[in-house]
Amino acid sequence: DYISAIPEESDMYVNNTATIKLKVPAGDEFNGSVLLKNLYLSCDPYMRGVKHSDTGTTAQDRIVFFAPDSPIVGYGVSKVVDSRHPELKAGDLVWGITKWEQYSLITNTQSFFKINHTDVPLSYYTGLLGMPGMTAYAGFYQVCNPKKGEYVYVSSAFGAVGQIVGQLAKLMGCYVVGSAGSKEKVDILKNKFGFDEAFNYKEEVDLNAALKRYFPQGIDIYFENVGGKMLDAVLLNMRLHGRIAVCGMISQYNYEKHEGVTNLMHLIYKRIRMEGFSVNDFYHLYPNFLDVMLPFIREAKIAYVEDITQGLENGPAALVRLFSGRNAGKAVVAVAHH
Ligand code: NDP
């Protein structure tokens, strides 16, 4: 209750008897800690996978996003309010793994990047210039091994990752087709993001036939965001020596038992390389990524669509919307002004 009484810009903690400046507590255990004011929180499909976190292979894969009686954990953009970290000071802007609350005390700052470029909207660091952007960049350039002129298919193409992958592929000179779940999304894929073609997968009774229509000569690269029946249909349409970058399988996240994929023999018939990847293994490339992306943004070579929900209290509903496609673009929750 008292948090809501804080004047917007003050970073003060007010209760009935006192106004206290928000500070990192004293004590050796808080050396290196920062106190953050959260500005934007990111809604990401992987947060749904918490029930499988015990299968994670790296420390970052094993983060628990939903723990009883604790705030949700997730990526966000924040302002440093107080710092006992040698490289961060009050007023700095950062992005990394924070919590779904107004102010967060962060004792492990390992996931955080300092934001040095503020001529772009800060919310971009939850998407285009943050984790989903890095996912698109690493997945496309490092995993897909793309070449000019190749035939590229992106599923969930209007999403945070998909819209960037499609545009990177266009910038490389590929032929790019995307699928998404509504006519409005399909129109934007073609008219704003410059995809060569796009289709509404929900209107296709036969996904194999739809892919044959858009790729009569077959698919060289499939950027997989969806899994299940879509993957099965894609396998039938891959070209010799095709590559499938397995980024995500959102159609399966709400199922206890995943849908069977029956066409895996096509991996052999077509000598396809199918490779799963995690963005967590590529953050060392973040400076290279910024060198590529910032000029693309400043020169308007990349377009970007966000779906911003106002207010922390509306965050959980925004997160749930991802799983029925009711987000249109990168889903972000705006918590405060900086
Ligand atoms: P999006 O912004 O694309 O949001 C999710 C979208 O998925 C929805 O808008 C919806 O779009 C689509 N969707 C939801 N349910 C289904 C379904 N049953 N079948 C088909 N499509 C569905 O999310 P992101 O771009 O952030 O993430 C895309 C994928 O990338 C996810 O699978 C995610 O888990 C993965 N990912 C993987 C990472 C990695 O390191 N490997 C890192 C980040 C993300 P529509 O209207 O088109 O149905």
Automatic annotation (TrEMBL):
Domain Oxidoreductase N-terminal: start-end pairs: 30-110
Residues in Alcohol dehydrogenase-like C-terminal domain copies: 160-292
Keyword match Oxidoreductase: yes
UniProt xrefs under SUPFAM superfamilies: GroES-like, NAD(P)-binding Rossmann-fold domains
Gene3D superfamilies, sorted: Medium-chain alcohol dehydrogenases, catalytic domain, NAD(P)-binding Rossmann-like Domain
Pfam families per the UniProt record, alphabetical: ADH_N_2 (PF16884), ADH_zinc_N (PF00107)
Record GO terms (molecular function): 2-alkenal reductase [NAD(P)H] activity
Alphabetically ordered keywords of this record: Oxidoreductase
Matches recorded under PANTHER family: 2-ALKENAL REDUCTASE (NADP(+)-DEPENDENT)-LIKE (PTHR43205:SF32), PROSTAGLANDIN REDUCTASE (PTHR43205)
Protein name: Uncharacterized protein
Taxonomic source organism: Rubus argutus (Southern blackberry)
